[in-house]
């Protein structure tokens, strides 16, 4: 599967997208002009209005959409389509979902180009925007409820797919793991040097070793891109989008990833109420996640998993605070010498330096 210059050109224009969707879905009547959605880094994403519903069309160019000079395997959308199909009603993972927490419905997939067309869940806030905008008197209680919803979903996903060869084969997403190794884990030493950390080389080596281990199939299906912009708040529920980084890997790449972003949300919270809401979400998430793991916790969360989770936790904070993903993050525009950035780097380095320490952010997983 390989994108072509012709396909890329087609998805650079609203008219090209409209004609493509009309050809693929004869029963769908496009109305109005498709609108390219902002904020997507990896893919080119459009909202296509229709008579009865709107749809989302996602095209994967053979590079990072926000950085065309960086190649990226377009097979990532094949993985996303498989996830959406498995999580749909009647799919092999349908029991993981609930009416409250689910992924968008898959409408069409064209692996040759590749393009995925899916349900549009609407112009709704991502979880981070919701946390900052919700009324203070209801924020903490509802944030805890959302944490329980998300923790239960993720725990079910990990437990249901634990040591299941069917998922290991279908969701082996090594190309995306190679990209993560190159962009994130191998960059940790330089990011730490930027942040003024003396033992940057040693800590960077620890992160790079983890990235190399994560290239191989692991123990469960992971969502792979669990951060606030991928969690949309829809009325009394959540919708999880952007599954192209999913991989049959290790639970730390979901749990530590999410906890790192919760730490950053709390660190950069605009008010005490917002910080309390993040804490309430985190505590509820961890409790629900651990409960949903049930008998698989001992297999999924070994001492090594806890150690490596701390390493990933630090690496994810670094890539947002002083690394290539700072632009658009909560630390955008801040110099490495800024006190807030220095605090983030310090926390990241502590997790990389002492991954066996009993950090409270991990809530006793695996103990």
Quick description:
With 367 residues, the protein is α+β, with helices and mostly antiparallel strands. The chain is 47% helix and 12% strand. The protein has two domains: 115 residues, Phosphorylase Kinase, domain 1 (2-Layer Sandwich); 236 residues, Alpha-Beta Complex (Aminoglycoside 3'-phosphotransferase, Chain: A, domain 2), CATH 3.90.1200.
Describe the structure.
It is built from 14 helices and twelve strands. The protein is α+β, with helices and mostly antiparallel strands and 367 residues long. Helices cover 47% and strands 12% of the residues. The model has no long low-confidence stretch (mean pLDDT 92). The strands form four sheets. It has a five-stranded antiparallel sheet, with helices on both faces. The chain has a three-stranded mixed sheet with strand order 6-11-10. The protein is globular and about 60 Å long.
Descriptive terms for the model:
single chain, 367 residues, alpha+beta, Phosphorylase Kinase, domain 1, Aminoglycoside 3'-phosphotransferase, Chain: A, domain 2, 5-stranded antiparallel β-sheet, 3-stranded mixed β-sheet, 14 helices, globular
| Range of helix content | 40-55%
Quantity of strands, as a count: 12
Q: Sheet bearing the most strands, described?
A: 5 strands, antiparallel
Strand content: 5-15%
Secondary-structure element string: HHEEEEEHEEEHHHHHHEEEEHHHHH
Structural class: alpha+beta
Average pLDDT number? 92
The CATH architecture category of the largest domain equals Alpha-Beta Complex
Which sequence of strands runs across the widest sheet? 1-2-3-8-7
CATH class of the largest domain: Alpha Beta
- The global form is globular
Count of structural domains: 2
* Rg over CA atoms: 20 Å
- Full CATH superfamily name of the largest domain: Aminoglycoside phosphotransferase (APH), C-terminal lobe
CATH fold description of the largest domain? Aminoglycoside 3'-phosphotransferase, Chain: A, domain 2
């Amino acid at each position: 599967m390989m994108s072509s210059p012709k396909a890329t050109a087609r998805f650079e224009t609203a008219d090209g997208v409209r004609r493509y969707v009309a050809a693929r879905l004869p029963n769908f009547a496009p109305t109005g002009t498709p609108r390219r959605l902002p904020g997507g880094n990896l893919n080119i994403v459009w909202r296509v209005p229709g008579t009865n519903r709107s749809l989302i069309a996602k095209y994967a160019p053979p590079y990072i959409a926000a950085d065309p000079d960086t190649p990226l395997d377009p097979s990532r959308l094949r993985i996303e389509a498989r996830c959406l199909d498995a999580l749909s009603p009647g799919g092999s993972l349908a029991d993981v979902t609930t009416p409250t927490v689910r992924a968008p419905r898959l409408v069409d997939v064209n692996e040759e180009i590749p393009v995925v067309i899916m349900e549009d869940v609407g112009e709704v806030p991502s979880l981070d925007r919701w946390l900052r905008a919700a009324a203070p008197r209801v924020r903490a209680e509802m944030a805890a409820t959302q944490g329980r919803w998300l923790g239960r979903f993720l725990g079910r996903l990990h437990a249901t797919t634990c040591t299941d060869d069917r998922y290991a084969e279908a969701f082996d997403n090594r190309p995306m793991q190679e990209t993560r190794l190159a962009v994130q884990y191998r960059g940790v030493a330089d990011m730490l040097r930027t942040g003024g950390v003396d033992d940057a080389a040693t800590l960077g080596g620890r992160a790079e070793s983890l990235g190399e281990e994560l290239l191989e199939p692991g123990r469960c299906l992971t969502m792979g891109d669990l951060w606030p912009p991928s969690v949309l708040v829809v009325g009394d529920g959540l919708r999880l989008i952007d599954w192209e980084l999913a991989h049959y890997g290790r639970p730390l790449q979901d749990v530590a990833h999410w906890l790192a972003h919760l730490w950053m949300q709390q660190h950069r919270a605009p008010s005490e109420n917002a910080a309390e809401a993040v804490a309430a979400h985190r505590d509820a998430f961890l409790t629900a996640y651990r409960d949903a793991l049930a008998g698989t916790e001992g297999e999924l969360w070994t001492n090594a998993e806890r150690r490596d989770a701390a390493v990933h936790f630090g690496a994810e904070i670094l890539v947002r605070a002083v690394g290539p993903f700072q632009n658009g993050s909560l630390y955008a525009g801040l110099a490495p010498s800024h006190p807030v950035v220095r605090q983030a780097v310090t926390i990241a380095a502590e997790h990389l330096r002492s991954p066996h320490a009993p950090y409270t952010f991990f809530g006793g997983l695996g103990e």
